[in-house]
Write a structure and sequence with these properties.
Blueprint (H helix, E strand, L loop, with lengths): L3 E6 L3 H12 L3 E6 L2 H10 L4 E5 L1 E2 L2 E2 L13 E6 L4 H10 L3 E4 L4 H30 L2 E2 L2 E2 L3 H13 L6 E4 L6 H10 L8 E5 L5 H9 L16 H4 L4 E5 L6 H13 L1 E3 L6 E3 L3 E6 L3 H6 L5 H7 L2 E4 L9 H17 L4 E2 L1 H8 L6 H15 L3 E2 L22 H5 L16 H15 L4 H8 L3 H15 L1
Parallel strand pairs: 1-2, 1-3, 3-6, 6-7, 10-15, 10-16, 11-12, 12-15, 17-18
Antiparallel strand pairs: 4-5, 8-9, 13-14
Amino acid sequence: MSKLTALVVEDDRASREGLAKLVEREDFTVDTCENLAGARAALETRVPDVILTDLELPDGQGTDLLAEETAASSEIVLITGNATVDSVIEALRAGATDYLTKPIDTARLRTLLAGVRRTRELQNEVKSLRTELRNLGRFGPMIGSSPPMQAVYDMIERVAPTDAAVLVFGESGTGKELAAQTVHQLSRRAGAEFVAINCGAIPPTLIESELFGHVKGSFTGANADHKGVFERADKGTLFLDEITEMPLDLQVKLLRVLETGQITRVGGNQATTVDVRVISATNRDLSLAVADEKFRADLYYRLNVFPIALPPLRERGDDLHAIAEHFLNALNAETGAKKKFGGPAIEKLEQHSFPGNVRELKNIVQRAYIMADDMITDAHIPIEGENGTLPAVAALHPPSDVAAGTPAERKPAIKPGATIAEMERSLILSTLDSCDGNRTEAARILGISPKTLYNKLQKYDSSAS
């Protein structure tokens, strides 16, 4: 392990030089400065392993360094000549590693610096393990070892320790929420909540309440006080998916919250301070939305501090095989089966362009898993056509199935000119049939509740009678 570094920030020259000598004896390389301005300049040159700073400085408080992004990876120790319980608690809550009182207790300083060394050794071990896992194609919940994904991992590792706003963009199904979760897990906020909200899945009339909460009686149906996602994510991370779907009037309020760090519940008048890191995501070009005046430019710049682009699955090479195996292993673990992919099945997957990306691959693997007994062959992979489009629902079932005694109304083909209701019926009945009548499994594949499936089947039976 290379020699550790320290930065001593102290306005009194004698105290500064004396403390620097004590730290050097513990085998640290030491830089010194006399105020916050000097500390910030030093941080631009080298980020130390530990910063030992006087609490009271000529141009501010030592605690101000806790907000510096350049010091995000440093351990920060505050030094004070008149420590009180309140000041110590406040410093530790703000993120300080520890504190020392004047005159410096040499034994306590040695113990503290030994702790810094142990922390750095552990971090290096974790980093080494993480590098090994990356080479094997795993990075937190993300899977893949292709060059495009390694570049994504590099970006995540760089931004995770900071509190910078992150904008994740990419095609639908590329794993934007997984990327956001990985940023959270590698950040200092990992012990707090990760809260996700889809801005496009909530009615415009309710999204303000979901974001900021509401007080009882603020609108019809508000029967109790409600915490919004900002309050639930306090000290943690908030993931705003499909950010371009947020109404313009609400974008103004979101911008104010990001600038002030305070939220006010709908119907309330009391501001609440929140400490939230925001990660947003979109599958659209946000700059075009700004140009079309559908998204505020000032909010765009606030959210787009650190952009991360996720590559589509078709550009990730052998990652496709690894991800498919991951999904298959998860299904095997759920049921205790030992199904495998045959070579032709993988070849057929590799020929597909996957417009739906990883989400589409997961659905294909689930369907193939249901259809296969032990070995998944190319016949179980429901991909048809030279353009890589998925087959019609009826194509999943050979015509002989219908002629073999199954009522025709249970497997209607989708015909040109069919209504949405007729196509829905065809999809539901075909999926149910592929599950051998297992309604729970069919509902899971369709993405609806068993009760909803039951009600629709009752409707189909009554209309047929």
